[in-house]
Amino acid sequence: MTKKTDEYSTKSYVPYHSPFDPCPPLQRKYYSTPPNLYIGFQPRNLQQFSPIEALKKGTLWTPFYDYYENPYKK
Amino acid sequence: MWAYEKKLMYPVKVSTCNPTLAKYLTEQYGGADGELAAALRYLNQRYTIPDKVIGLLTDIGTEEFAHLEMIATMIYKLTKDATPTQLKDAGLAEHYVSHDSALFYSNAAGVPFTASYIQAKGDPIADLYEDIAAEEKARATYQWIIDQSDDPDLNDGLRFLREREIIHSQRFREAVEILIEERDRKKVF
Amino acid sequence: MNKPLPKEYYTQLEEIQAIDFTLYELALYLDTHPSDSQAIQQYNQCAVYCKQLKAQFESTFGPLQFGSPNTNQQEWTWNSGPWPWQI
């Protein structure tokens, strides 16, 4: 049931909806799987952001950058 | 010892006068997975961890205090000019009657900070696994706060903090690797 | 009411925050990669540059770091605001 969305670090699934559940079904439930789960021990010479860009992004290393936005926002 | 630097780690900005967001942010001030808990956890664990990872715990623990100051700045800015009525409308009446607009180490629901939020097992693997979990929980908390917030400037600062949790988790995972493999870095690369 | 800070305060401070952040990121990386000599070299360059920027800022706006010289001979400026959370 896991489906990749356009952003690779956001996954989603559709929870089972019973006819006896009172709330209208949420289409999808989302969760985050950031890059640190995939990279392993950081290899040498990873690509870097410039200092000012790194500050904005929250990391020096481009492969670790993971932008987050509310996935339920339309 | 520690020496203060008269600057924030990141230029925190808040664009709307919205004390409700301050209430949510309190979760990361004095909550179970908040920055205070993180700083105290790492700086305390470092006395009983193998030498190879003491530096990492020291540096990350120190950074957590910089994050705590960022969260405090956000809360301060969101509440400093709020009237008692505005605070009441934001669900902060209970906070107000006890603390006025002073910051207090509690979670978003007002439960005071407690040392039982943090663990020090003395087993390096158990402690580092707790640290990894703590970073992932803090990351998730930032996500849920961003989901509840429509302040673009505030979210910008919160995204910075969320990204830091990712990097810290990465470094703790590497620390586990170092301890379980005892690998000589020169041989690996 | 204090005077608002000049624009240069914010731009210079942000530049320091950026270099300091890079330095810090390199430090965390080196904590788990202690024999990456290229990263050590970058760290050292960064450290020198950061020191220069801070000295420059402090000569205009007063001490940023505890222990820095108080360039104003008449007044102790360390405890004068605004403080980081106020700006």
Oligomer: heterotrimer
Q: Radius of gyration of chain C from the CA trace?
A: 16 Å
Mean of pLDDT of chain C: 94
Low-confidence stretches of chain B: none
The shape of chain C is elongated
Question: Could you explain the architecture of this structure?
Answer:
The complex is a heterotrimer of chains A (74), B (189) and C (87). Chain A has 74 residues and is α+β, with helices and mostly antiparallel strands. Chain A is 15% helix and 14% strand. Chain A has a three-stranded antiparallel sheet, with no helix packed on it. In chain A, strand 1 and strand 2 form a beta hairpin. The two termini of chain A are 22 Å apart. With 189 residues, chain B is mainly alpha-helical. In chain B, helix 2 (35-45) runs antiparallel to helix 3, helix 2 packs antiparallel against helix 6 and helix 6 packs antiparallel against helix 7. Chain C has 87 residues and is mostly helical. The mean pLDDT of chain C is 94. In chain C, helix 1 packs antiparallel against helix 2 (37-61). Chain C has a domain at 13-60. Chains in contact: A-B, A-C, B-C.
Write the layout of secondary structure elements.
The complex is a heterotrimer of chains A (about 70), B (about 190) and C (about 90).
Chain A lengths: L2 E2 L5 E4 L15 E4 L3 H4 L11 H7 L17
Chain B lengths: L18 H12 L4 H11 L8 H26 L4 H6 L3 H7 L24 H25 L3 H30 L3 H4 L1
Chain C lengths: L6 H26 L4 H25 L26
Helix pairs in contact in C: 1-2
Compact overview of the structure:
Chain A has 74 residues and is α+β, with helices and mostly antiparallel strands. In chain A, 15% of the residues lie in helices and 14% in strands.
Task: State the main characteristics.
heterotrimer; A: 74 residues; alpha+beta; three-stranded antiparallel sheet; 3 strands; 14% strand; C: 87 residues; mainly alpha; 59% helix; 0% strand
